[in-house]
Amino acid sequence: MKGEHRSSVSRFASAAIEVERSVGLSPNHPAVVKGTTLFPTTVVSTWDSPRFLVSGHNNPKLGKQVLKGPRTGWPIFHVTLEERATCPRSCAVWADCLAPGTRILTADLQWTPVEALKVGQRIAGFDEYPAPGVKQRKSTVAVVEELGRAVRPSVRIVTDRGEVTASTGHLWLAKKGRPGFQWHRSDELAPGDQVQFLAEPWEQDVTYDGGRVRGFLEGEGYAGAWSNGAHAKPRIGWGQLPGRLIDEINGLVVDRGFSISVSHRQSGARKNTIALTEVLGGWREVLRFLGVFRPTRLIERAEDLLSGHAFDGRATIPATVLAIEPLGDLEVVTIATSSKTLIAEGFLAHNCYGNAMPYARRHSPDADFIAAMKAEIVTLARANRKGLLIRLHALGDFYSLAYVEMWAQLIDFLPQLHVFGYTARSEEADDEESQAIARAIRELAETRWDRFSVRFSRAEPGPQRSIVVEADPELPDVIVCPAQTGGTDACATCGLCWAPAARDKTIAFLRHGMKRATGPRTAREPRQARPPRVPRPKPERVSYGRPGRKLIGGLPGETKEDRAKRIALYAIDHPSLSADAISEALRVPWGAVNAALSAGVPGRIAHTDRTRKPRQVFTPSPPPPATAEERIAALPAAELARIAKTYGAVVRTPEKELA
pTM of the full predicted structure? Predict the structure, then answer.
């Protein structure tokens, strides 16, 4: 039977499904604006995709594996497609953005008000998330794709490096507590949090002296990135024969707040001495210098210097939040960029919520998509014999009848495969293709709900449906998603959408930016600043060679010799204890115990290899006397002499005194 299942899977993996060569969206589709899909730069073709299914580990709303119900332990995967029927431009969170007047860093190193930007303009951006296997985000050049206006609840974020005004739902690269920098909403920030910061906005120097520096750089300056081990080091500088002119130029640069270094070297056949000047301060100062003086010949290198630099170390600096000031409803400028990121007033910011999802690349369903997708799912099914769960679709929708038929075949051939998700397809649609797709989805869901739990997104409640609401409707057959109301953490800990008991229920999702039974989200009151951390007292760590100081683990005023004698007496009194136990009991280093046992205690040998557990060798001896004087008197004279000679101590007994 097991062999028959393997052969059927092999036949299915090699089976062909007829697909249309031309796959596209209707011009009237909500996901199409001006003839193209929303955010087209996030769409990748079949052959440019390393994989289609992404683990829910990268999506906190899903979870890595099911943690509740009969499917416990199954891994969760999700897929995103180009079509975005369930995420149209009217999404409220897309309108979460920046107040007019907020300055955005462009690719030619100018700070331009956000309302003055134009679609297609190139700006400075960075990686939304680090690339797989890379710890740092890197800078890049992005393109403005969409601009608009909206009125949203807004706040002013005041930091020790400046302030910025944005809507409450705008996302910032920030750190709250110990974890690293992550995406946080404006109204989630509080005094004491840190926001990643690049540099304070600069302005071009159009003064007479600024023109002198610019003209000098046109002829004598250079800019570029030179190898510095594993990374390229951006550099900008100039050189000329030593003299009054270069000294004046250097002085003008220093007067404008830049740090420079001057060196001399011999060059040319005549071995002339050249004075070379470079700007110090790293990548950020190189960008600022170019942006302030803007020499025409060197500014052409701006995009090369702006791209590919890791945002770690000195590349960026944290700005500490001092206050969050609610401003009520304000007009904001909505913006979407190809990198999903931008730099606003020096702070590292995000734009669209839908594209804020980790690894939300949207796959273009071309002619090869179904065959490649089918092969990948078969591979995953073989690796997860007990079962696997796939979420359809994190972004996107069913785009053709062939795609629905693919899932029907997968359900039939792979008994371990289970699917859940949502669709905006409707049998009341205007075109026949959409009606046919919706009908095929409904028939498959009705007959195989236990394996194909797909709900229809509608405006009204009903069986096998999902709706979007502003607040909890509190209807008998409508259940608000527990992950949005704090009832659970993610789909992995919920399981409501695919539960048989909830098949005829309606799942309600609160619109982005809404809260349960409270209507639109308003700005939160700023929290009190965290009290300053009081550092724990640390023991004084000094070397043994510094007399008159307290030693590690020693008593006040105790010397090295006194401590060794104390260890020896304790070991004699406790012959069954190991070196580790003595070290713990006396609060002294293990090495000191080891040395004392080996040198001054008869019958006790501590192992010198610390990679193994210390051991002891015991010699039969009568029970130890009660007092220290009696214990010392019971020792042989030779041992007493040895102790006295080793530690330089005077050992007194009732009968004799040894020095």
Answer: 0.52
